[in-house]
Design brief:
The chain is an all-alpha fold. About 50% of the residues lie in helices and about 0% in strands.
């Protein structure tokens, strides 16, 4: 297994961080958990030993995903997901926090863009 150097998630690098972590999870063959392609089987009284073993294996892989996500977040930002055990939920919360998709957010970005001015000492190339 290769040793990767992923910049920890901070306030300004969500998009590159998300791509890097996604590919790391793909390399570890656990991205399908976050992408909700692979879901946890439900146990009941009629569950045989093989299915129970698969469920146990899935839960272990799910913990690996969560630890990869958590450990690749800067310690000052970990509070966002520190009480979340489900990697799917953690991934969605991080996306919503760092890449909000709301009219208010779009208006804020648009407003800050419209307030940009070229200073007299700057040149346009």
């Amino acid at each position: 297994m290769a040793n990767y150097s992923i910049l920890k998630l901070e306030s300004q690098n969500y998009i590159s961080w998300a791509n890097d972590v996604k590919y790391l999870l793909m390399e570890r063959q656990v991205w399908s958990i976050v992408a909700e392609i692979e879901i946890e089987l439900k146990l009941d009284v009629s569950t045989d030993a093989e299915v129970a073993k698969e469920v146990k294996n899935f839960k272990a892989r799910k913990q690996i995903v969560m630890s990869i996500i958590y450990l690749n977040i800067d310690s000052s930002h970990r509070r966002i997901v520190e009480r979340i055990d489900d990697p799917v939920e953690a991934w969605k919360v991080l996306k919503m926090y760092y890449q909000p998709d709301s009219k208010a957010h779009h208006m804020e970005v648009y407003s800050s863009l419209m307030n940009c001015h070229i200073l007299s000492e700057e040149r346009v190339h």
